[in-house]
Write a structure and sequence with these properties.
Helix content: 10-25%
Order of helices and strands: EEHEH
Strand content: 15-25%
Strand order of the largest sheet: 2-1-3
Number of helices: 2
CATH superfamily: Uncharacterised protein PF13773, DUF4170
CATH architecture: 2-Layer Sandwich
Number of domains: 1
Number of strands: 3
CATH class: Alpha Beta
Radius of gyration: 13 Å
């Protein structure tokens, strides 16, 4: 069995579209934690498409497994759009 590579998907309205600062951190949408990048990407894409009419809203994928074990290398690759 492969070791899960945990990913967090979350987003919210940005203070400015040129930054990654959230207008209201208390209102963040935590989509979920996923056991692999493929599932996280699907969730990210779904959330982003739901909010496509609001240019201020952005969703992100955080590689939790990299934060938990920064010295361990993995095969996980992030497309530029989801970074």
């Amino acid at each position: 069995m492969e070791k899960p590579l945990l990913h967090l998907v979350f987003g919210g309205e940005l203070a400015d579209v040129r930054s990654r600062e959230f207008a209201d951190p208390d209102a963040l949408d935590i989509v979920g934690i996923f056991p692999n990048y493929a599932l996280a990407h699907d969730a990210w894409q779904s959330a982003a498409q739901r909010t496509i009419d609001n240019a201020q809203t952005r969703y992100f994928i955080v590689h939790l497994h990299r934060l938990l074990d920064p010295d361990e290398e993995d095969e996980d690759v992030t497309p530029a759009a989801a970074a």
